[in-house]
């Protein structure tokens, strides 16, 4: 479970949680940005603030790749449509 996180708070490990669940607990003030979490596939505990920066960076890179893929698909469809229209007009 690569996208699962464990939370270490008050001497106890809890989880696994998704990062979205962790974000929700932060917003509800159930945990603090200084509490420790780790990804399920890692051994190192880091603060939620530290891990959050990494998650946001990865999420932004993923979103950028999705936008680029969508843009390329749109351009490809537009070119095919344009070629079809040119062929139809002739």
Describe the structure.
The chain is rod-shaped, with a radius of gyration of 22 Å. The protein has a single domain, classed as Dna Ligase, domain 1, CATH 3.30.1490. The protein has 90 residues and is of the alpha+beta class. A four-stranded antiparallel beta sheet has the order 2-1-3-4. The longest helix has 42 residues. The chain starts with a strand and ends with a helix.
Condensed summary:
This protein has 90 residues and is of the alpha+beta class. It has helices spanning 19-27, 48-89, and strands spanning 5-9, 12-17, 36-39, 46-47.
Q: What is the count of distinct domains?
A: 1
Level-1 CATH class name:
Alpha Beta
- Label the structural class: alpha+beta
| DSSP strand tally | 4
At CATH level 3, the topology is: Dna Ligase, domain 1
Averaged pLDDT: 76
Shape: rod-shaped
Strand content: 15-25%
Low-pLDDT runs of 5+ residues are none
Elements, N to C (H/E): EEHEEH
Q: Can you list the strand order of the major beta sheet? A: 2-1-3-4
Integer-rounded radius of gyration: 22 Å
Instruction: Identify the CATH architecture.
Output: 2-Layer Sandwich
Largest pleated sheet: 4 strands, antiparallel
What distance lies between the first and last C-alpha atoms, to the nearest angstrom? 56 Å
* Contiguous helical run count: 2
**Residues in helix, %:** 55-70%
